[in-house]
């Protein structure tokens, strides 16, 4: 509860007023059977005037109960909805602060489940808890007090039934909690499968894999079904068992109470027996409410633990200890000093091993090498998407860890391998680079990226809506839009991670010419598979198995680097 206090304190009035309103309803619930008993007893004594007064009191009580019930439901909803909304915001903020390593720890589907399903479970539990936390125990305690007052000897039947039910409920909770935790993980798997399939639906169709994907989904869905049934099988025993015990209790009350009414007419009036049975039903209702709370608490505890895992995750990349938080990237010089990196920290295998390199401001640098050699990981360290395990990465002579993350990343434009666009217009996507850019600036960078021409051919031009992921534009168009978006930042360092692979060589040549003429003061790093993409670079680094095996310009590498020549001639042969 201490952990969640942050989300309760701003709405403490709702958390207090809701249960207080329920108290009014509970008092009415406890009094109503007593009023009815008085009316029945007075009817047998022929005192109708007194009964009418009690009836009026019952009407007033019913109105107060209605007000209390409505108030409790209203404040409960206000408290739970606000509570859940604040948790969602914090989870989303936390995920935004994650490094790639943090995100790798949680699958995308799992994060979505935690942000939606798990938070909803918490919201529903808070709502039920506020409405039932005083109602159920209040009704139970009040009803027990009343049955003891009415007939102490007869109330002893509850001394047997209630302890039995408490033990049974505790057993059910112990069995249900781990099953609900397992069920939430199965929901993660289902979300992962659905997201992967829908995101890559074009690939699925092109390979005619619909049947396979349907079978894969059916398997994951069946696992969720079985997990859900396992959890629910335990929980569904609660209500029937409680009903059975309390029905036996009512039968015992009727048996012994009915005998008292018949044997000694004045010992227990018929109205008192009627009230006693009503209180038995109220105890049944209160236990059913507690059952509902317990069922939901089992799921909410599992969801709570999963939410805490995200909120308590230590973000391994932050700028808390940055020495120069106000410092901005000004020139664009880059230096790697003895940099090594492992994805799995306990592994001996290094993705990057003892990397040393210098990149001067305004130069164009090419990085080339086989797939999986560590090229993307290398440039990701410049923007601190990863931090090195050993060594330093310097920008403008300052360790990247000493910049604020915002200032460092604002000074660097990066076009990733995966060219991601978001739902919205083309202009809105480009404004990710600079939300305050003028239309002239937007059109200029689009022209630099060789995108203005095809954008202008759309009916709505820059106001053309892109579907999620930019699926309504081609791969080459998507790449050029992502390049334009990066250029709009006017960064001191530009990183292109194989970002012209879907562009024809003529268009790529035009883009490179623009970079050379218009971005002469910008440091440019080009990761590529094609030699032609880096052939004119001021310096080329050849990386293989996490090491720099060669460095130099094109002609030098052709003379001295076997790996470079092998790549070059393999591409010439393909032509």
Number of helices: 21
Count of discrete domains: 3
> Share of helix among residues?
55-70%
Q: Give the strand line-up of the largest sheet.
A: 6-9-10-3-11-12
User: For the record, what is the CATH homologous superfamily label of the largest domain?
Assistant: ABC transporter type 1, transmembrane domain
CATH topology of the largest domain: ABC transporter transmembrane region fold
Spans where pLDDT lies below 50 across 5 or more residues = none
Structural class: alpha/beta
Mean pLDDT: 83
Tell me what the CATH architecture of the largest domain is: Up-down Bundle
Main sheet properties: 6 strands, mixed
Overall body shape: elongated
CATH first level of the largest domain: which class?
Mainly Alpha
Q: β content, as a range?
A: 5-15%
Gap from first CA to last CA: 67 Å
Radius of gyration: 35 Å
Strand tally: 12
Structure, explained:
- By secondary structure, the chain is α/β, with parallel strands linked by helices.
- The chain has three domains: 5-311, ABC transporter type 1, transmembrane domain (ABC transporter transmembrane region fold), CATH 1.20.1560.10; 321-411 and 492-507 and 520-575, Rossmann fold (3-Layer(aba) Sandwich); 415-490, P-loop containing nucleotide triphosphate hydrolases (Rossmann fold), CATH 3.40.50.300.
- The chain is 63% helix and 10% strand.
- It is built from 21 helices and twelve strands.
- It has helices at 5-8, 12-45, 48-97, 100-105, 108-132, 135-150, 158-199, 201-206, 210-235, 238-263, 270-311, 375-380, 405-410, 426-430, 439-448, 452-457, 475-487, 505-518, 531-534, 554-560, 562-574, and strands spanning 334-341, 352-359, 364-368, 390-395, 398-399, 412-415, 424-425, 465-466, 493-497, 523-527, 539-544, 547-552.
- It has a six-stranded mixed β-sheet. It has a four-stranded antiparallel β-sheet with strand order 2-1-4-5, with no helix packed on it. It has a two-stranded antiparallel ribbon with strand order 7-8.
- It starts with a helix and ends with a helix.
- The model has no long low-confidence stretch (mean pLDDT 83).
């Amino acid at each position: 509860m201490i952990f969640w206090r942050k989300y309760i304190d701003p709405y403490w009035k709702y958390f207090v007023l809701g249960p207080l309103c329920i108290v009014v309803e509970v008092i009415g619930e406890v009094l109503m059977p007593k009023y009815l008993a008085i009316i029945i007893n007075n009817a047998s004594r022929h005192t109708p005037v007194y009964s009418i007064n009690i009836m009026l009191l019952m009407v007033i009580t019913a109105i107060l109960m209605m007000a209390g019930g409505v108030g409790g439901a209203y404040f409960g909803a206000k408290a739970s909805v606000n509570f859940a909304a604040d948790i969602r915001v914090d989870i989303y903020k936390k995920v935004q602060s994650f490094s790639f390593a943090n995100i790798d720890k949680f699958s995308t589907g799992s994060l979505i489940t935690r942000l939606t399903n798990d938070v909803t479970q918490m919201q529903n539990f808070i709502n039920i808890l506020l409405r039932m936390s005083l109602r159920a125990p209040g009704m139970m305690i009040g009803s027990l007090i009343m049955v003891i007052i009415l007939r102490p000897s007869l109330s002893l039947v509850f001394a047997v039934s209630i302890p039995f039910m408490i033990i049974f409920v505790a057993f059910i909770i112990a069995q249900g909690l781990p099953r609900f935790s397992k069920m939430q993980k199965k929901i993660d798997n289902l979300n992962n499968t659905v997201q992967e399939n829908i995101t890559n639906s074009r690939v699925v169709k092109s390979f005619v894999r619909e049947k396979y994907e349907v079978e894969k989904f059916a398997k994951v869905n069946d696992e969720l079904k079985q997990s859900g049934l396992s959890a629910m099988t335990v929980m569904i025993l609660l209500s029937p068992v409680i009903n059975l015990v309390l029905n036996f209790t009512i039968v015992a009350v009727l048996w012994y109470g009915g005998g008292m009414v018949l044997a000694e007419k004045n010992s227990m009036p018929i109205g008192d027996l009627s009230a006693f049975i009503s209180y038995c039903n109220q105890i049944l209702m209160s236990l059913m409410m507690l059952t509902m709370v317990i069922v939901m608490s089992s799921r909410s505890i599992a969801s709570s633990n999963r939410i805490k895992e995200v909120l308590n995750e230590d973000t391994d990349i932050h700028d808390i200890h940055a020495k120069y938080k106000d410092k901005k990237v000004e020139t664009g010089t880059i230096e790697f000093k003895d940099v090594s990196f492992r994805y799995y920290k306990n592994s001996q295998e290094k993705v990057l091993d003892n990397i040393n390199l210098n990149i001067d401001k305004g130069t164009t640098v090419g990085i080339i090498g086989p797939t999986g050699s560590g090229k993307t990981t290398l440039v990701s360290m410049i923007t601190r998407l990863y931090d090195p395990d050993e060594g330093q990465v310097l920008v403008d002579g300052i360790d990247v860890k000493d910049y604020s993350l915002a200032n460092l990343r604002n000074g660097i434009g990066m076009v990733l391998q995966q060219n991601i666009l978001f739902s919205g217009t083309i202009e809105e996507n480009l404004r990710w680079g600079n939300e305050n850019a003028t239309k002239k600036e937007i059109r200029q960078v689009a022209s630099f990226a060789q995108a203005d021409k095809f954008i202008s051919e759309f009916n709505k031009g820059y106001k053309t809506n892109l579907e999620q992921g930019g699926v309504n534009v081609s791969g080459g168009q998507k790449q050029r839009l992502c390049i334009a978006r990066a250029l709009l930042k006017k960064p001191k360092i530009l990183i292109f991670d194989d970002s012209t692979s879907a562009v024809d060589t003529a268009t790529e040549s035009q883009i490179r010419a623009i970079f050379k003429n218009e971005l002469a003061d910008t440091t440019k790093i080009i990761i590529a598979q094609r030699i032609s993409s880096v052939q004119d670079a001021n310096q080329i680094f050849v990386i293989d198995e996490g090491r720099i095996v060669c460095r130099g310009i094109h002609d030098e590498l052709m003379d001295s680097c076997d790996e470079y020549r092998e790549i070059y001639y393999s591409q010439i042969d393909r032509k």
